[in-house]
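2024-03-11 09:14:02 DEBUG pipeline.ingest accepted 1 chain
2024-03-11 09:14:02 DEBUG pipeline.ingest length=132
2024-03-11 09:14:03 DEBUG pipeline.predict start
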Amino acid sequence: MHGPDLTNNLFGVLNRFRQEAIALVSDIEGMFHQVKVDPKDYDALRFLWWQDGDLTQQPVEYRMVVHLFGSTSLPSCASFCLRKTALDNTGDFGHQVIDTVLKNFYVDDCLKTVSSKAVAVKLRIDLCHLLS
């Protein structure tokens, strides 16, 4: 069973990237390891680990507290977190910042063009504040 696809359309992100003269490209460092799992779901993400790779020893049981890298749900979970962060902060940031998060991110990568260097610098600063 699949849930909703919350990831922006890559074609749309790339097409919007061609609209203005100054390019702003970014990647949210460590994004996937910042997407936390609800504590009530920790037990669903258990895994076993053998110390030093020694399979003759008893395995140690661990639980994931962040989403599993490589899982099919992770891009949608990351996109949901970005969108929720933007929508929860509409009163604190300008329309361009919120709109950039909602329309110009493909998972954790931002591709945005603006009309001037000054606008690019301000947008970068505001995006860093919003997403930090």
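2024-03-11 09:14:41 DEBUG pipeline.report The beta strands are 22-27, 46-49, 60-63, 105-106, 109-114.
2024-03-11 09:14:41 DEBUG pipeline.predict end
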